[in-house]
Every structure is written in C-alpha cells, then in structure tokens.
Amino acid sequence: RGLVETLTDIQHHHIEVISSTTHVHLDENNCLEIIAVKGDVKVIQSLPKKLMITRGIKQLKIANLMI
C-alpha cells in the first residue's frame, strides 16, 4: 500500500534529472517502472539509493548507457 504514491514522490524530488518514466502492468500483482535519467551524476546517484530502501520494490536494476 502506498507504493505508487511513494514512487511518485521520489520522482518529483528528482524531476530535474528524470527524462521519462514508463509504467507497465506485467500481471495482476506486478508492474515494471522504467525511469530514464540524464544530468547531474550526484543527483542521479541519490535516486536508486532512495528506491532501494522503498518497501514494495522487488527488484532494482541500474543500466548505464554511455553515448
């Protein structure tokens, strides 16, 4: 309970680095949230730290794309 609101709140606190988000319903009990970021490295690094301690998140993967 409250996970969607918590994720939205965290994303709003990192709005300056979030380029886009995608929410996909996988099944009745599971969703996939994809957050694309770009910008200040220190701000970006704080985002997964906050997400990792959020109750209800089952898995977190970080992918780096260097262009």
Q: How would you explain this protein's 3D organization?
A:
With 67 residues, this protein is of the alpha+beta class. The chain has helices at residues 3-13, 41-52, and strands at 18-25, 31-37. A two-stranded antiparallel ribbon has the order 1-2. The model has no long low-confidence stretch (mean pLDDT 92).
What is the count of DSSP helices, taking H or I runs of 4+ residues? 2
Low-confidence stretches: none
Quick one: overall form?
A: globular
Proportion of strand residues: 15-25%
SSE order in H/E notation?
Answer: HEEH
Number of strands: 2
Query: What's the rounded overall pLDDT mean?
Result: 92
Largest sheet: 2 strands, antiparallel
- Share of helix, binned: 25-40%
Strand order of the largest sheet: 1-2
Alpha carbon gap, first and last residue: 38 Å
- Structural class based on helices, strands and sheet pairing: alpha+beta
Instruction: Tell me the radius of gyration.
Output: 12 Å
TL;DR?
By secondary structure, this protein is of the alpha+beta class.
Please describe the topology of this protein:
Layout: H1 3-13, E1 18-25, E2 31-37, H2 41-52
Antiparallel strand pairs: 1-2
Notable traits:
single chain, 67 residues, alpha+beta, 22% strand
